[in-house]
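Escalated from tier 1: magnesium ion holo job.
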Amino acid sequence: MLRIAVQSKGRLYDETMDLLKAAGIKLVAVKRTLLVPSRNFPVELLFLRDDDIPASVASGTADVGIVGLNEVLEKRQYVNVLRPLGFSRCRLSLAIPKDEEYTGLEWFNGKTIATSYPNVLNEFLEKQNIDACVHEISGSVEVAPGIGMADGIFDIVSSGGTLISNNLKEVETVIDSEAVLIGNDKYLNDEKREVLDELIFRIEAVKAAEKKKYMLMNVPLDKLDAVLEILPGIKSPTILPLADDRWRSVHAVLDEKDLWSVINQLKNVGAEGILVLNIEEMVP
Ligand code: ATP
Ligand code: MG
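Tier 2 regenerated the structure:
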Protein backbone atom coordinates (compact mmCIF):
# COMPACT_ATOMS: atom_id res chain seq x y z
CA MET A 1 0.00 0.00 0.00
CA LEU A 2 1.50 3.29 -1.13
CA ARG A 3 0.77 6.21 1.19
CA ILE A 4 0.25 9.61 -0.44
CA ALA A 5 0.34 12.76 1.73
CA VAL A 6 -2.07 15.43 0.47
CA GLN A 7 -3.34 18.75 1.83
CA SER A 8 -6.41 18.25 4.02
CA LYS A 9 -7.97 21.56 3.01
CA GLY A 10 -6.81 24.68 1.24
CA ARG A 11 -5.68 25.79 -2.16
CA LEU A 12 -4.18 22.46 -3.22
CA TYR A 13 -7.04 20.27 -2.07
CA ASP A 14 -9.56 20.41 -4.93
CA GLU A 15 -7.13 19.94 -7.78
CA THR A 16 -5.24 17.21 -5.93
CA MET A 17 -8.46 15.26 -5.49
CA ASP A 18 -9.49 15.94 -9.11
CA LEU A 19 -6.14 14.63 -10.35
CA LEU A 20 -6.34 11.43 -8.29
CA LYS A 21 -9.93 10.90 -9.41
CA ALA A 22 -8.97 11.39 -13.06
CA ALA A 23 -6.21 8.81 -12.46
CA GLY A 24 -8.96 6.35 -11.56
CA ILE A 25 -8.34 6.32 -7.80
CA LYS A 26 -11.57 5.99 -5.86
CA LEU A 27 -11.61 6.50 -2.11
CA VAL A 28 -13.47 4.51 0.49
CA ALA A 29 -16.24 6.79 1.71
CA VAL A 30 -15.26 7.64 5.25
CA LYS A 31 -15.90 10.63 7.43
CA ARG A 32 -13.06 13.10 7.78
CA THR A 33 -10.21 10.98 9.06
CA LEU A 34 -6.49 11.36 8.70
CA LEU A 35 -5.95 8.22 6.65
CA VAL A 36 -8.29 7.14 3.86
CA PRO A 37 -7.68 4.06 1.71
CA SER A 38 -8.66 3.70 -1.94
CA ARG A 39 -11.20 1.03 -2.76
CA ASN A 40 -9.80 0.16 -6.17
CA PHE A 41 -6.05 0.91 -6.10
CA PRO A 42 -3.37 0.00 -3.50
CA VAL A 43 -2.90 3.52 -2.13
CA GLU A 44 -4.08 5.41 0.94
CA LEU A 45 -4.26 9.18 1.42
CA LEU A 46 -2.80 10.88 4.47
CA PHE A 47 -4.43 14.28 4.96
CA LEU A 48 -2.08 16.90 6.41
CA ARG A 49 -1.41 20.64 6.50
CA ASP A 50 0.76 21.45 3.51
CA ASP A 51 3.61 22.59 5.81
CA ASP A 52 3.92 19.03 7.12
CA ILE A 53 3.95 17.22 3.78
CA PRO A 54 7.68 17.52 2.91
CA ALA A 55 8.73 16.24 6.37
CA SER A 56 6.23 13.38 6.26
CA VAL A 57 7.79 12.20 2.99
CA ALA A 58 11.37 12.76 4.18
CA SER A 59 10.76 10.68 7.29
CA GLY A 60 8.96 7.89 5.43
CA THR A 61 5.65 8.46 7.24
CA ALA A 62 4.25 8.95 3.73
CA ASP A 63 5.80 7.45 0.60
CA VAL A 64 4.96 10.32 -1.72
CA GLY A 65 3.23 13.67 -1.37
CA ILE A 66 1.51 16.35 -3.40
CA VAL A 67 2.53 19.86 -2.34
CA GLY A 68 3.58 23.27 -3.71
CA LEU A 69 7.19 23.54 -4.87
CA ASN A 70 7.41 26.68 -2.71
CA GLU A 71 6.91 24.53 0.43
CA VAL A 72 9.40 21.93 -0.80
CA LEU A 73 12.08 24.59 -1.30
CA GLU A 74 11.34 26.28 2.02
CA LYS A 75 11.22 23.18 4.19
CA ARG A 76 14.65 21.82 3.15
CA GLN A 77 13.66 18.21 3.68
CA TYR A 78 15.30 15.27 1.96
CA VAL A 79 12.78 14.61 -0.84
CA ASN A 80 12.89 14.29 -4.62
CA VAL A 81 10.59 16.16 -6.96
CA LEU A 82 9.20 13.34 -9.11
CA ARG A 83 6.91 15.30 -11.37
CA PRO A 84 5.46 18.79 -11.79
CA LEU A 85 1.67 18.62 -11.74
CA GLY A 86 0.72 21.86 -13.49
CA PHE A 87 -1.78 23.27 -10.98
CA SER A 88 -1.64 25.81 -8.10
CA ARG A 89 0.74 27.89 -10.15
CA CYS A 90 2.07 30.90 -8.29
CA ARG A 91 5.36 32.67 -7.69
CA LEU A 92 7.35 33.86 -4.71
CA SER A 93 8.06 37.54 -5.22
CA LEU A 94 9.42 40.60 -3.50
CA ALA A 95 7.01 43.50 -3.25
CA ILE A 96 7.29 47.03 -1.89
CA PRO A 97 4.87 49.94 -1.27
CA LYS A 98 3.63 51.12 -4.64
CA ASP A 99 4.75 54.73 -4.20
CA GLU A 100 8.36 53.80 -3.50
CA GLU A 101 10.78 54.35 -6.32
CA TYR A 102 12.36 50.96 -7.02
CA THR A 103 15.97 51.20 -8.09
CA GLY A 104 16.81 47.52 -8.37
CA LEU A 105 17.67 44.87 -5.80
CA GLU A 106 19.98 47.28 -3.92
CA TRP A 107 16.78 48.98 -2.75
CA PHE A 108 16.52 46.17 -0.18
CA ASN A 109 19.93 46.86 1.41
CA GLY A 110 19.33 47.78 5.04
CA LYS A 111 15.59 47.17 4.72
CA THR A 112 13.31 44.78 6.62
CA ILE A 113 11.40 42.16 4.63
CA ALA A 114 8.46 40.25 6.10
CA THR A 115 7.90 36.69 4.85
CA SER A 116 6.72 33.17 5.63
CA TYR A 117 9.55 31.85 3.44
CA PRO A 118 12.73 32.86 5.32
CA ASN A 119 14.89 30.05 3.94
CA VAL A 120 14.14 30.73 0.29
CA LEU A 121 14.50 34.47 0.85
CA ASN A 122 17.77 34.27 2.80
CA GLU A 123 19.30 32.05 0.15
CA PHE A 124 18.28 34.50 -2.57
CA LEU A 125 19.54 37.57 -0.70
CA GLU A 126 22.84 35.87 0.04
CA LYS A 127 23.33 34.92 -3.60
CA GLN A 128 22.54 38.47 -4.68
CA ASN A 129 24.74 40.03 -1.96
CA ILE A 130 21.89 41.99 -0.44
CA ASP A 131 22.08 42.77 3.25
CA ALA A 132 18.50 42.91 4.47
CA CYS A 133 16.74 41.92 7.68
CA VAL A 134 14.35 39.00 7.20
CA HIS A 135 11.38 39.10 9.52
CA GLU A 136 9.48 35.82 9.67
CA ILE A 137 5.73 35.95 10.16
CA SER A 138 3.34 33.08 9.57
CA GLY A 139 0.39 34.78 7.88
CA SER A 140 -1.03 38.04 6.47
CA VAL A 141 2.43 39.02 5.29
CA GLU A 142 0.93 41.55 2.89
CA VAL A 143 -0.20 43.87 5.69
CA ALA A 144 3.30 44.19 7.21
CA PRO A 145 4.44 47.33 5.31
CA GLY A 146 1.11 49.08 5.93
CA ILE A 147 1.44 48.71 9.71
CA GLY A 148 5.10 49.68 9.78
CA MET A 149 6.36 46.19 10.53
CA ALA A 150 8.50 45.89 7.40
CA ASP A 151 9.67 47.86 4.37
CA GLY A 152 8.79 45.14 1.88
CA ILE A 153 7.47 41.63 1.70
CA PHE A 154 8.40 38.31 0.12
CA ASP A 155 5.29 36.24 -0.50
CA ILE A 156 3.16 34.13 -2.83
CA VAL A 157 1.69 36.03 -5.75
CA SER A 158 -0.70 34.67 -8.34
CA SER A 159 -2.97 37.33 -9.86
CA GLY A 160 -1.40 40.17 -7.89
CA GLY A 161 -4.80 41.30 -6.57
CA THR A 162 -3.75 40.97 -2.92
CA LEU A 163 -0.71 43.18 -3.56
CA ILE A 164 -2.81 45.87 -5.24
CA SER A 165 -5.37 45.94 -2.46
CA ASN A 166 -2.53 46.43 0.04
CA ASN A 167 -0.90 49.23 -1.99
CA LEU A 168 2.09 47.10 -2.91
CA LYS A 169 3.85 46.43 -6.19
CA GLU A 170 5.75 43.32 -7.23
CA VAL A 171 9.37 44.17 -8.01
CA GLU A 172 11.21 40.83 -8.30
CA THR A 173 10.07 37.26 -8.98
CA VAL A 174 12.35 34.84 -7.14
CA ILE A 175 10.82 31.44 -7.91
CA ASP A 176 7.93 30.06 -9.96
CA SER A 177 5.96 27.40 -8.18
CA GLU A 178 3.32 24.78 -8.94
CA ALA A 179 2.08 21.64 -7.25
CA VAL A 180 4.59 18.78 -7.51
CA LEU A 181 4.68 15.08 -6.69
CA ILE A 182 7.49 14.45 -4.21
CA GLY A 183 8.98 11.15 -3.12
CA ASN A 184 11.77 9.61 -1.13
CA ASP A 185 13.17 6.41 -2.55
CA LYS A 186 14.96 5.47 0.69
CA TYR A 187 11.95 3.60 2.03
CA LEU A 188 10.31 2.17 -1.08
CA ASN A 189 10.07 -1.63 -1.32
CA ASP A 190 9.39 -3.39 -4.63
CA GLU A 191 5.67 -3.52 -4.13
CA LYS A 192 5.42 0.21 -3.38
CA ARG A 193 7.70 1.06 -6.25
CA GLU A 194 5.42 -0.81 -8.63
CA VAL A 195 2.37 1.06 -7.35
CA LEU A 196 4.25 4.37 -7.66
CA ASP A 197 5.23 3.58 -11.26
CA GLU A 198 1.61 2.88 -12.09
CA LEU A 199 0.52 6.09 -10.33
CA ILE A 200 3.03 8.17 -12.28
CA PHE A 201 1.99 6.45 -15.52
CA ARG A 202 -1.64 7.38 -14.85
CA ILE A 203 -0.74 10.98 -13.92
CA GLU A 204 1.23 11.29 -17.17
CA ALA A 205 -1.78 9.98 -19.10
CA VAL A 206 -4.15 12.42 -17.41
CA LYS A 207 -1.76 15.33 -18.05
CA ALA A 208 -1.27 14.34 -21.68
CA ALA A 209 -5.02 14.19 -22.24
CA GLU A 210 -5.74 17.50 -20.53
CA LYS A 211 -6.89 20.23 -22.84
CA LYS A 212 -6.89 17.84 -25.78
CA LYS A 213 -9.89 16.89 -27.88
CA TYR A 214 -10.50 13.89 -30.05
CA MET A 215 -12.18 14.78 -33.31
CA LEU A 216 -13.95 12.60 -35.89
CA MET A 217 -15.38 13.69 -39.23
CA ASN A 218 -16.50 12.41 -42.61
CA VAL A 219 -14.62 13.79 -45.59
CA PRO A 220 -15.39 13.45 -49.33
CA LEU A 221 -12.42 11.74 -50.98
CA ASP A 222 -11.65 14.73 -53.21
CA LYS A 223 -11.50 17.04 -50.14
CA LEU A 224 -9.16 14.79 -48.17
CA ASP A 225 -5.98 16.68 -49.09
CA ALA A 226 -7.49 20.00 -48.09
CA VAL A 227 -8.59 18.55 -44.74
CA LEU A 228 -5.18 17.05 -44.04
CA GLU A 229 -3.63 20.40 -44.82
CA ILE A 230 -5.65 21.97 -41.99
CA LEU A 231 -4.67 19.21 -39.61
CA PRO A 232 -0.84 19.31 -39.75
CA GLY A 233 0.72 20.08 -36.44
CA ILE A 234 -2.07 17.99 -34.99
CA LYS A 235 -0.94 14.56 -33.92
CA SER A 236 -1.34 11.64 -36.33
CA PRO A 237 -4.64 12.03 -38.12
CA THR A 238 -5.99 8.56 -38.89
CA ILE A 239 -7.87 7.95 -42.14
CA LEU A 240 -10.34 5.08 -42.24
CA PRO A 241 -12.48 3.76 -45.12
CA LEU A 242 -16.26 4.07 -45.04
CA ALA A 243 -18.89 1.84 -46.65
CA ASP A 244 -19.41 4.53 -49.30
CA ASP A 245 -16.05 4.57 -51.08
CA ARG A 246 -16.38 8.26 -52.02
CA TRP A 247 -15.93 9.18 -48.32
CA ARG A 248 -13.32 8.72 -45.60
CA SER A 249 -13.55 8.89 -41.82
CA VAL A 250 -10.79 11.10 -40.37
CA HIS A 251 -9.81 11.01 -36.68
CA ALA A 252 -7.41 13.46 -35.02
CA VAL A 253 -6.29 14.75 -31.63
CA LEU A 254 -6.02 18.51 -31.21
CA ASP A 255 -5.46 21.21 -28.61
CA GLU A 256 -8.62 22.59 -27.11
CA LYS A 257 -7.47 26.13 -27.83
CA ASP A 258 -7.43 25.46 -31.59
CA LEU A 259 -10.82 23.75 -31.59
CA TRP A 260 -13.11 26.41 -33.06
CA SER A 261 -10.75 27.77 -35.67
CA VAL A 262 -10.00 24.22 -36.86
CA ILE A 263 -13.71 23.31 -36.98
CA ASN A 264 -14.49 26.38 -39.07
CA GLN A 265 -11.72 25.65 -41.53
CA LEU A 266 -12.75 21.99 -41.80
CA LYS A 267 -16.38 22.94 -42.48
CA ASN A 268 -15.28 25.40 -45.14
CA VAL A 269 -13.42 22.74 -47.10
CA GLY A 270 -16.31 20.25 -46.91
CA ALA A 271 -15.82 18.04 -43.84
CA GLU A 272 -19.15 16.78 -42.50
CA GLY A 273 -20.50 15.17 -39.35
CA ILE A 274 -17.76 16.64 -37.18
CA LEU A 275 -17.81 15.09 -33.71
CA VAL A 276 -15.62 16.23 -30.79
CA LEU A 277 -14.94 14.09 -27.71
CA ASN A 278 -13.10 14.74 -24.46
CA ILE A 279 -10.00 12.61 -24.22
CA GLU A 280 -10.08 12.46 -20.41
CA GLU A 281 -12.99 10.07 -20.73
CA MET A 282 -10.89 7.68 -22.77
CA VAL A 283 -8.04 7.42 -20.28
CA PRO A 284 -8.31 4.08 -18.42
P1 ATP B 1 -2.38 24.66 5.27
O1 ATP B 1 -3.54 24.90 6.18
O2 ATP B 1 -2.46 23.30 4.63
O3 ATP B 1 -1.06 24.94 5.91
P2 ATP B 1 -1.90 27.09 3.79
O4 ATP B 1 -2.84 28.13 4.30
O5 ATP B 1 -0.48 27.09 4.20
O6 ATP B 1 -2.59 25.66 4.04
P3 ATP B 1 -2.89 27.48 1.08
O7 ATP B 1 -3.28 28.92 1.08
O8 ATP B 1 -3.98 26.45 1.09
O9 ATP B 1 -1.83 27.16 2.22
O10 ATP B 1 -1.94 27.26 -0.20
C1 ATP B 1 -1.37 26.01 -0.44
C2 ATP B 1 -0.42 26.13 -1.60
O11 ATP B 1 -1.14 26.51 -2.77
C3 ATP B 1 0.68 27.18 -1.48
O12 ATP B 1 1.79 26.72 -0.75
C4 ATP B 1 1.02 27.43 -2.91
O13 ATP B 1 1.85 26.41 -3.43
C5 ATP B 1 -0.33 27.35 -3.58
N1 ATP B 1 -0.97 28.67 -3.66
C6 ATP B 1 -1.12 29.57 -2.68
N2 ATP B 1 -1.76 30.66 -3.09
C7 ATP B 1 -2.05 30.46 -4.37
C8 ATP B 1 -2.71 31.21 -5.35
N3 ATP B 1 -3.23 32.40 -5.09
N4 ATP B 1 -2.85 30.68 -6.57
C9 ATP B 1 -2.36 29.47 -6.85
N5 ATP B 1 -1.69 28.71 -5.96
C10 ATP B 1 -1.55 29.20 -4.74
MG1 MG C 1 0.58 25.84 5.16
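The CA atoms of residues 66 and 181 lie 5 Å apart.
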